[in-house]
Automatic annotation (TrEMBL), chain B:
Pathway: Alkaloid degradation; nicotine degradation
GO molecular function, one term: oxidoreductase activity, acting on the aldehyde or oxo group of donors
Organism: Nonomuraea glycinis
CDD domains linked to this entry: fer2
Family annotation (SUPFAM superfamilies): 2Fe-2S ferredoxin-like, CO dehydrogenase ISP C-domain like
Keyword annotations: 2Fe-2S, Iron, Iron-sulfur, Metal-binding, Oxidoreductase
Name listed for the protein in its UniProt record: (2Fe-2S)-binding protein
InterPro entries: 2Fe-2S-bd, 2Fe-2S-bd_dom_sf, 2Fe-2S_ferredoxin-like_sf, 2Fe-2S_ferredoxin-type, 2Fe2S_fd_BS, Aldehyde_Oxdr_Iron-Sulfur, Beta-grasp_dom_sf, TAT_signal
Origin superkingdom: Bacteria
Domain 2Fe-2S ferredoxin-type: 42-118
Length: 326, 194
């Protein structure tokens, strides 16, 4: 790891002032950033330690649960209000990483973790996300892990965060602070599609600090769940995952929100799959129709076509749970 | 041991010192405020197993390297150095973390516990005793991390079943494949510590 300067920030405003310099980078839990720096994927001259900022609380107010950006994965996962009102969020957090990493990693850092695409993580390989214009070896290379929807001819990496999938389904809002002041960014617009600029991953501007995440508390969110399919039982990234919020009246689906991980360069909300369910009975035929709608525009590559049926089966499994729990 | 016959540990220490000299610190951002506040080496104090250690360290030194190479507590192991194997697990303020994934400078003011801090004199910690009784290791390289994770796992109350123990010990890999005996060790330690 190359040497860097280090500053511990005690107030968000001061952190933002320091981060106006493009050579600076925030460090919170450090669980992804330090690996990227050790491997030479990223180099930063100046790290601004934000781990001591007073942004680690979780509270319920005004119909929302407000999560501090520096609250730890493990603390949020077991928070009573989160478990009771936002079960999908607790489940997604506990499905991620290992107990040790969950004790370290912050929610804000989790959202900003970089892709696990092995070409991105190997600085000796070309990668449009790491070095714009250098090419994408995944398109015709080892792409078993890669995207089947939402990719471009410049990048088909998948976003690795379980948390981001849950927050997308929950219609959460990211709160930030920058030199221009505070603002709110809906999850739907937080991650950018890769297009021909895959190196631009989020709507955040230089030095903009995530201060918190607001999640609406709704009846729909109370009936939510997460399913993660992995190559091994635990401590692994998703091959595919589903965050599902479904509200039934009798057999009829009144409301549904579905987001998917492991299939796209960003958390993938499928309104097409939702519309195939809403106003209809939850049965084998409508579940199959939702799965078909989900993958209608899928563009699998040489080694990841298996994800097309797999994600449909994952959706079918999770929707079946709602049927049984009725 | 003579000077012509250095121990493996002295070689590692000398190598680290040379590397530190050879790498120039980067130029600081020319923001006036940053210049005043920024340090590339820091005089820090780490409290490890109840003892305060003062060190002058570069900011890039991980907690793991500070423990092993500076403070000389080599019980904590460096396996992958990427947070994947768990050999470097220590407790910080009672919570288990991977010491390779954090900077020493970020852990000032916290209570750090390493495997050297588990026993009380000659009396082993119940988790250590359980690992011996249940043959919970073979080569032993992952064992300090397994022990620290197991202590936390028991305190967290994640020992309700063998499946629960496996899930909550999943951040620690064992290349010898001692998992069945590790699970048995944690199960027994939990029973004794309850």
């Amino acid at each position: 790891m190359d040497a860097f300067a280090y500053t511990r920030a005690d107030q968000p405003e001061r952190a933002v002032r320091l981060a106006a310099d493009p050579r600076a980078r925030y460090i919170a839990g450090g669980t992804d950033l330090l690996n990227l720096m050790k491997d030479g994927v990223q180099r930063h001259d100046h790290l601004i330690d934000i781990s001591a900022l007073p942004l680690a609380d979780v509270r319920e107010s005004g119909g929302r649960i407000r999560l501090g950006a520096l609250s730890r994965m493990s603390d949020v996962a077991v928070h009573q209000a989160v478990r009771r009102r936002l079960p999908v969020l607790s489940q997604a957090l506990l499905a991620g990483a290992s107990p040790q990493v969950r004790n370290m990693a912050s929610l804000g850092g989790n959202l900003l973790q970089r892709t696990r695409c092995w070409y991105f993580r190997d600085p000796t390989m070309p990668c449009n996300r790491r070095e714009p214009g250098s090419g994408c070896p995944a398109l015709d290379g080892l792409n078993r892990w890669h995207a089947i929807v939402g990719g471009s001819d410049h990048c088909i990496a998948v976003h690795p965060s379980d948390l981001a999938v849950a927050l997308t389904a929950l219609d959460a809002t990211v709160r930030t602070l920058s030199a221009e002041g505070p603002r709110e960014i809906p999850m739907a617009g937080f991650y950018l599609p890769p297009g021909d600029t895959p190196h631009l991953e989020t709507a955040l501007r230089q030095g903009e600090l995530i201060t918190g995440i607001d999640v609406p508390v709704t009846e729909l969110a109370a009936g939510s769940t997460y399913l993660k399919v992995r190559d091994r039982a635990t401590f692994e990234f998703a091959v595919v995952s589903v965050a599902a919020l479904v509200r039934l009246r009798g057999e009829e689906v009144r409301e549904a929100r579905l987001a998917f991980g492991g299939i796209a360069p960003r958390p993938w909300r499928s309104e097409a799959a939702e519309q195939a369910l809403i106003g209809r009975p939850l049965n084998a035929a409508t579940i199959e129709a939702a799965g078909a709608a989900l993958v209608r525009d899928a563009r699998p590559r040489a080694h990841n076509a298996f994800k097309v049926p797999l994600v449909q089966r994952a959706l079918s499994d999770i929707l079946g749970q709602f049927g049984r729990n009725r | 041991m003579s000077e012509e016959d250095p121990t493996r540990r002295t070689v590692i220490k000398v190598g680290a010192a040379v590397a530190a000299v050879a790498t120039a610190a980067p130029a600081l951002p020319d923001v006036a405020e940053a210049k005043a506040a920024v340090t590339d080496t820091a005089r820090i104090s780490l409290k490890v197993n109840g003892v305060t250690h003062r060190q002058e360290l570069e900011a890039r030194v991980t907690l793991l390297d500070a423990l092993r190479e500076r403070i000389g507590l080599t019980g904590t192991k460096k396996g992958c150095d990427r947070g994947e194997c768990g050999a470097c697990t220590v407790l910080v303020d009672g919570r288990r973390i991977k010491s390779c994934l954090t900077l020493a400078v970020m852990q000032q003011g916290r209570e750090i516990t390493t495997v050297e801090g588990l026993a009380r004199g000659d009396a082993l910690h119940p988790v250590q005793a359980a690992f011996i009784r249940n043959d919970g290791f073979q080569c032993g390289f992952c064992t300090p991390g397994q022990l620290m994770s197991a202590v936390a796992c028991v305190h967290e109350g994640h020992t309700g079943s063998d499946d629960e123990i496996r899930e909550w010990m999943s951040g620690n890999l064992c290349r010898c494949g001692c998992y069945p005996n590790i699970v048995a060790s944690v199960r027994q330690a939990a029973k004794e510590m309850s």
